Amino acid sequence: MKLVLPVFAVVSVLYIAVFGARIVPDLVAAMLGASIYTYVSYYVLVRELPFSKPFTEAQQGSWWMIPLMLGLFVLPAVHIVVSLVSSVGVYAYVAVLLVVNAGLWVRRGGEGNERTVPVTGRSAL
Questions:
Q1: Quick one: how many helices (H) and strands (E) in the chain?
Q2: Fewer Cβ atoms within 10 A, N terminus or C terminus of the chain?
Q3: Domains of the chain, residue spans
Q4: Is the pTM of this model over 0.90?
Q5: Which of 61, 59, 42 is nearest to 51 (CA)?
Q6: Structure-model confidence comparison of residues 110 and 53, the more confident one
Q7: What gap in Å lies between CA 93 and CA 78, rounded to an integer?
Q8: pLDDT tens-digit profile of 63-73?
Q9: What is the pLDDT of residue 117?
């Protein structure tokens, strides 16, 4: 998120300048959706640094990319539908995204927790 947030902030300022404050809930929903997509894609894809392998070796097992890319259309589609259905739909969608993000990103105990970053940001070593 350290790479995405500054770019998103600049784009958000431009959107607010063009569309006004009414676009802010949509921007919040977009950021929360991007956060969920980041989490899901990290756990679905091979857990290695991007571009750390040769291209031919990295292509093996890339069939996971197809459902993951199709999943990229789900969150914006839901966003569009809820914003068209009701004037408070975006706010409800943001609330749901907040709950989902909290459930995904909150540090959990138990097995599989070795990859969780400590809340303080310090190294666990």
A1: 6, 0
A2: C
A3: 4-105
A4: no
A5: 59
A6: 53
A7: 8
A8: 667 777 787 88
A9: 47
